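Known limitations

Files may contain more than one protein. Parsers should not assume a single record per file. Below, a two-record file is shown to illustrate correct handling: read the sequence, read the token line, then continue until end of file.
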Amino acid sequence: MVFDPWIVLRFWPQLLDGARITLLAFGIALAIGIPIATIVCAGRLRGGGVLAGLSAGYVTVFRIIPEAVMIFWMFYCLPPLTGYAVSGLWSGSLALALISGAYLAEIFRAGIQSVDRGQWEAAKAMALPRWITWTRIIIPQAARFATPPFINFLTELLKGTTLLATIGVADLALRAYVLGSQTFRYLEFLTAIAIIYFVIIFPVARFAERIEHRLAAATR
């Protein structure tokens, strides 16, 4: 089979629309997942009590359940349980958001716990208000430690959006498959989306590596 790049250019608008859906699902999952992660992280840091137990249970459950299973469950089970029709985009994005909340909560918690204990003790000795301790001392330092794994997770989340094609969401992956089946040119379209994902993800991954190296150098 001879590779024909012109057929990709012919259907390029459809691929771009698929990329838009992919980025939209990514944005929805992140917009919902970050607040969930913040709440769960706060519960995990309490060390004990009902909230800490629920938070730990949430992290355990949603880190174990495979993404595909969660997406299928949201798509097929959520509408009958709630009585409302939920689109594939929203059900799939919500599934990714719940899983993202579990992983991001652990990333946030690890970043906060990486802050030297002496920082807490110094703030306490200076009788600083708790909100100043968090906003001016703890969070800025924790962000340095949490940024590399956070950015790496973003790349994994973006790759995870390809699973939405399994429930009929017309994202980039499904558009490529449909166009390939219509034209019998799977080679061109699947290669095209592989390149598109690489162009999107590679700079982000490299950025995460640079931050990680700078952090390691600063720590040394």
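...continuing to the second record:
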Amino acid sequence: MVDDGAGGRPLLLAAVLLGGAGIFDVLGGVGELTGDLYVSIEGGGMYHYDITGWAWLHLAAGALAAGAGVLVPLDRRWSARLALVAVAALVASHLLVLTYHPIQTVIVIGLALAAARLVLRHPRRSAS
């Protein structure tokens, strides 16, 4: 097999995408920790929603994704599995709050799924 020097480029791109999604999620989570309430008016009543708990969830999922993004270029099976777990955490946490932040959800899920595709399509080295 001829090595053209581009063997690690897909993993570096996956690391940048996953790290970027993680940092974007961490910044979004920190921005929501202010304690402001969302208000909706339905059926003659006003409802207050406190999403501080979701902000902590996004902060944790973003930190996991950023950490996994740093470890993906190691080209090990466990780093690929960690990256896929981080992608699953990002996607799940953003689908839960899709109605509150639709643009942020589309951006983070797009970056995370692109990184997952790159990680899954790259052949792994053995642990030895």
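Parsers that stop after the first record will miss the second one. For reference, the second record is described as follows. Residues 21 and 107 are 8 Å apart (CA to CA).
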